[in-house]
Amino acid sequence: MKMWSTVVGVRPQPTTARVVMRHRNLLLGAAWVTSAVGGSIAMAAHVAEQSSSASPSSVSKVVLLGTGTPAATPDRSGPATAIVVNDTAYLVDFGPGVVRRASAAATSRGIAALQPTRLRLAFVTHLHSDHTVGYADLIFSPWTLGRREALDVYGPRGLKEMTTHLIEAYRVDIETRTNTDGNQRTFPDGYKVNAHEIGAGVVYKDTNVTVTAFATRHAMESYGYRFDTPDRSIVISGDTNPTQATIDACRGCDVLIHEVHTSAWLAARPEAGGAPPGTFRRFSEKYHTTAEQLGELAQRAKPRLLILYHYNSLSPEELQAEMMKHYAGHFVIGRDLEVY
User: Fold this and answer.
1) Cβ contacts of residue 222 below 8 Å, gap of 6+?
2) The whole model's pTM is what?
3) Does 24 reside within a domain?
4) Structural domain that includes position 201
5) Are strands 88-92 and 80-85 parallel, antiparallel or unpaired?
6) Is the pLDDT of residue 40 over 60?
7) Same domain for 143 and 160?
8) Which CATH number characterizes residue 124's domain?
9) Average of pLDDT values for 277-293?
10) Do 314 and 258 share a structural domain?
């Protein structure tokens, strides 16, 4: 039989281990051993407590709002991550379900900065639909709930046009909410968006963070982001093939959040929509990252903690085992609503 520990993938859980992770800020490092049980292989986690990159007084949190992929997996919402610093939230990507996941983090994790009406800053890695179909949600849902200020969003070329078309698509909604009978006529600016198209370099700075974009390698213009906060350096890859720019952005960073898939999953994946065999495999080889490639990248980037997100594998156990073949550092398989 296979045993899936509450710390498999070094993942905090909504259990005692979860409380330890959140409140004592301990990183659970797992080393896997195998033993024969009833003629099959069993896995058991040997757990050692080590200090994590966050201290009890940490002002920065990484909140995984969505770790999913285009697959409609019920327990994994679309790609969305929040960097929360001094009670301000900075979103990276807005996949499906982003506002509800933020609300869940606000209520179940006690992170007030993720209350929907306080979502005011976002960065998008690229404009693929699985990373952006929550954009309308982010624009309109918080406004309907009472957000009074415009939203600021930073991302690649095409963001302004996408923003303009979305707002136009909801013109009837906007007009009926802001006319003389409208229930939102007293805060008519809450749906507005300041869209900023960026290039590589520092793209945003305030008293909490400096955000630096770096070009990545995907099917369209794409960026990863490095967040430098008062106590941590956090790098998020977005969708990408391995790049030197990601390594350079991290260079011993506290947290690296990176996409990944296993080769076995890719080999087993059926083509969608009747596409010719090998179509997605060729796409993935150019624009995504295997576990082996990520292990090599992480060895060079040397993050204190590697978080796997936007991942595909045959099973969590398979992903865990594959990563451990190629990387000996601390890593976790991220799940929605986990906080680091």
Assistant:
1) 125, 126, 156, 215, 216, 238, 239, 240
2) 0.84
3) yes
4) 53-333
5) antiparallel
6) no
7) yes
8) 3.60.15.10
9) 89
10) yes
